[in-house]
Amino acid sequence: MAAEGCSSVSGTMRYFQTSTVCLRILSAVFYGTASFMIVVVNKTVLTSYGFPSAQFLGLGQMFATIVVLIIGKQLRYVQFPDYSHDVIKKVWPLPLLYLGNLVCGLGGTKELSLPMFTVLRRFSILMTMIAEIGRAHV
């Protein structure tokens, strides 16, 4: 009888592990799809429709992200700390780096062809990984 209980627990654990792996894979696929679609939409808006300001587009996307996060927090889909000056002090240089990345990235999206922009973006991720591996061995 005890063996049956252990078998049941083992089967339940295996189900949760498989479920967790599937959720992680689906999250990665969703993130990759969303990232690709944002680049495609930005490229289309900036070039095909001739939208004049990449910065305004970026600020609009940032505002929409903040609104979605606030709604998600109120509906308890996401959790993050409330606004405080301590949080700002802890992450201070990151918002400036993000804005710089936003301006340069959208400017690059407007000026480069989509395949070249994608190649450069993927190459920068590869170079960051190589630099991190090299730093870990030093």
Descriptive keywords:
single chain, 138 residues, mainly alpha, 84% helix, 0% strand
How large a portion of the residues is in β-strands, by DSSP E? under 5%
**Secondary-structure element string:** HHHHH
For the secondary structure, the number of strands is 0
Based on CA atoms alone, the radius of gyration comes out at: 21 Å
Q: Describe the largest sheet.
A: none
Shape: globular
Low-confidence runs of at least 5 consecutive residues: none
The first-to-last residue Cα distance is 55 Å
Mean pLDDT: 79
**Category by helix and strand content:** mainly alpha
What count of helical segments does DSSP give? Answer: 5
Percent range of helical residues: over 70%
Detailed description of the structure:
With 138 residues, the chain is mainly alpha-helical. It is built from five helices and no strands. The longest helix has 47 residues, at 2-48. The radius of gyration is 21 Å and the shape is globular. The termini are far apart. The mean pLDDT is 79.
What is the fold's blueprint, element by element?
Elements: H1 2-48, H2 54-74, H3 85-90, H4 93-111, H5 114-136
Gist of the model:
The protein has 138 residues and is mainly α.
